[in-house]
Amino acid sequence: MIWYGYAFCSATRRDVSRSTCYKRLGRRIIVTKKFGFWTLTCLVIANMIGAGVFTTSGFALSDLGSPHVVVLTWFVGGLIALAGAFSYGQLVRMFPESGGEYLFLSRAAHPLLGFVAGWVSLIAGFSGAIAFAATALEGYVVPDRMRPQWLPLGSVAVATIVLAGAFHGLSARVGTITQNLIVMLKLCLLVAILLFAASTLPTGDWAGDSVDGKTLSGWALAAAFATSLMWISLSYSGFNAAVYVAGEVEHAEHVVPRALLTGTAVVLVLYVLLNAVFVYAPPPESIAGAEDVAAVAASSLGGMGFESFVRWTIVACLLTSVFSMMMAAPRVYAKMADDGLMPAQLQFRTETPLAAIFVQVLVAVLLVLVSSLQGLLSYLGLTLSLSAAISVLCLFLPSVRTKPLFHIQHFLPATYVLCTLTAAALMTTLNPWQLLGTVVTFAIGLIAYYVVHITGGSRRDGKSKVNHAGRGERP
């Protein structure tokens, strides 16, 4: 089955206009190009603005002690994300197909590395992130103090995941249009929050003090900064969302890189401004270590009414985050199935990879039932950062490089890799146990790869699609 073919229908050139145009030729299903620049930009924004921006600053303030350093950390994290968006854009120009890290590493390095990256996507990159966003959404919809006794813990999160799977499984067009509309609403609500916060500046009693006079310096500050940067990197990790559907984009090598940079830049501005409000508006002791830092800040600014408005804005943000990841994730597993590294049932059989969506829903629901919010935060931040850094390293391989190694084109990718690996190293020196979950995830991926090869996979010719010299061969 070939689901990333290049057949185009005669529909108009409007965004999403080709969402229902696909051909079934025997067992060959050729999915046409149906995602445009604005849909991809919305996909990036929706993936990025999720649970992290509304929960991370409380933990970061508890560790760093200073609101100024917290805001600086968000700004630095945004610059690193922009460098990552540029780097992923370069990778898409080389490999304009769906699949993300799995595709890049399989084609540029080795199928083993690609399989492990795909495994990380299944367990952490998407399933863990979906579970994290859905769990945070439940915390805002039904806070513990308001939860009725008849409502089981996790039920709202599970229902949200199932709903997202149903929308994207039934129709690519319906799922995409719904997501885009909610993203536009989300941006309007976030701007409204910033405008209200700005109106309170002249009369508001904004704090901005350190937590109980806590100040860090030297190695302690560097380690705490790195830990917070890893947490914050999870909030920025959606900068690469558009690459997972690149095979369904016309002129992907040009459109996807622009969408990555545009979406990331918009989110960078919003994140810095929002978190400045979160950490400066309320007294620092009230938000240090708090999971619902955004709601606490809103209550401090405008009382219960504004807090309620912010809570439902957060719900909209988390909902689009779950929807967008449910849109992108199954494309990775479908690509792996097409290469023979996952069961053939996960391939595209209609305009959506229905079986892959079902698997994604199932794994995310299981993680909701067994995970905690803060535990997911540290695990996901470290695991996804390392996976992304390894993928960007593909740009330096001789089989991929089009310029000399020290060309200016490699400055931003090198910056992204260096900053990510440095922050990860500092974080693990502070708490080595945080590396355990990441190591176990990668190790299980290695074992699973060799099991697939021993059993022959879903088809024997999967390897034929991977050019071991480094380039992907388009059938």
The share of residues in helices is 55-70%
- What Rg is obtained from the alpha carbons, in whole angstroms? 22 Å
What fold name stands as the CATH topology?
A: Amino acid/polyamine transporter I
Strand percentage lies at under 5%
Tell me the total number of β-strands.
2
What number is the mean pLDDT? 77
Order of helices and strands: EEHHHHHHHHHHHHHHHH
SS field, number of helical segments:
16
The named CATH superfamily:
Amino acid/polyamine transporter I
Gross morphology:
globular
Instruction: Report, as a whole number of angstroms, the end-to-end distance.
Output: 11 Å
* The level-1 CATH class: Mainly Alpha
**How are the strands ordered across the major sheet?**
1-2
Structural class: mainly alpha
Question: What's this model, at a glance?
Answer:
With 475 residues, the chain is mainly α.
Give structural attributes:
475 residues; disordered N terminus; mainly alpha; Amino acid/polyamine transporter I; 66% helix; globular; 2 strands; single chain; disordered C terminus; 16 helices; two-stranded antiparallel sheet
What's the helix and strand layout?
Layout: E1 22-25, E2 28-31, H1 37-48, H2 52-64, H3 67-94, H4 101-108, H5 111-125, H6 127-141, H7 155-170, H8 172-200, H9 218-236, H10 252-280, H11 284-287, H12 293-338, H13 354-370, H14 373-392, H15 411-430, H16 434-455
Antiparallel strand pairs: 1-2
Q: Could you describe the 3D structure shown?
A:
The chain is mainly alpha-helical. It is 66% helix and 2% strand. Strand 1 and strand 2 form a beta hairpin. It is globular and about 65 Å long.
